[in-house]
Specification:
single chain; 31% helix; binds NADPH dihydro-nicotinamide-adenine-dinucleotide phosphate; binds oxalic acid
Length: 309
Amino acid sequence: MAILYCSNWGAPDAWHAAFRAEDPSLEFRVWPESGPVEEIDYVLAWHHQPGTLRDYPRLKAIFSLGAGVEKLLRDKNLPTGVPIVRMVDQALTTCMTEYVVLHVLRYHRRMPELEALQRHAEWVELESPPAWQRRVGILGLGVLGRDAAAKLALLGFDVAGWSNGPKQIPKVKSFTGEDGLAEILARSEIVVCLLPLTSATTGILNAHRFAQMPQGSFVINAARGGHVVEGDLLSALDSGQVGHATLDVVSEEPLPPTHPFWRHPKVTLTPHNASLTWPPTAAKHIVANIRHHEAGQPMSPLVDLAREY
Ligand code: NDP
Ligand code: OXD
């Protein structure tokens, strides 16, 4: 059986080693050295060259090497009828939760203000309420949002989440729909975005939504740059409606050197490294799915093309 690594981004060596460790019987090839096209059974795709995945007539599935599939789905020449499996990786989930907890705690304990005071050699005993008085809202309660919400709730935060369908997560309030979005934003002093980028969620963090949040709220976007209307965020930061923003993702990556986010005193930037797929654990997820598929069992999680995630 042959799997083909199709990516214009990253290095295949770590993936090759991970697959060799997980199942040495799988033949690992690297695009564009595909060999005879009819021999390719599965594709591993991340920032692939659009239009190339149609070249493999016996393709059984496409595995996204990332959790977000918006770029993959932008390829208008994907092979029809071939299932697409999203990345779920224990390391990806754990590291994203670390990122979210780090930045929620940073805002909760008023670190941006304390750092500013330190720069002016000012000793001010800023107070923070106990975690149960801090309301955190997570937009997206999927694989990543659910884990982050559960861990924040374990730390004692008053956590709510917003998703398409209602969720039951211990100690996490669940909101859905347009009214639910307005409600969760109105109650959240810290808003975390972990939504997929789809037609329904593009630009979801905009002036109208910032105005629904309590004044001075904090925004953490670890999903995609396309979720934020960047001009609206800059205006909301300048007016104080948003107190501070942490952005792991931006509309253009790498962020151009002249972009105002780089030097904005109320923006913390990280270079889309909140969490990275880790080949040793990710290969386990893919090999398990290949075995299921070969045994006639369902793979998961499958991308729903109509929902775009
Ligand atoms: P999932 O598909 O597991 O979860 C998506 C969540 O969003 C689900 O709860 C879903 O609701 C909800 N959702 C989707 N559309 C809507 C909508 N229109 N209204 C309300 N809720 C909606 O994704 P993951 O948790 O695995 O990943 C989330 C995103 O995180 C990825 O798409 C990717 O963009 C980003 N990411 C960023 C990384 C980084 O390093 N910065 C690393 C990895 C991922 P429901 O559950 O009801 O379907
Ligand atoms: C992902 C990412 O979607 O790393 O997995 O952004």
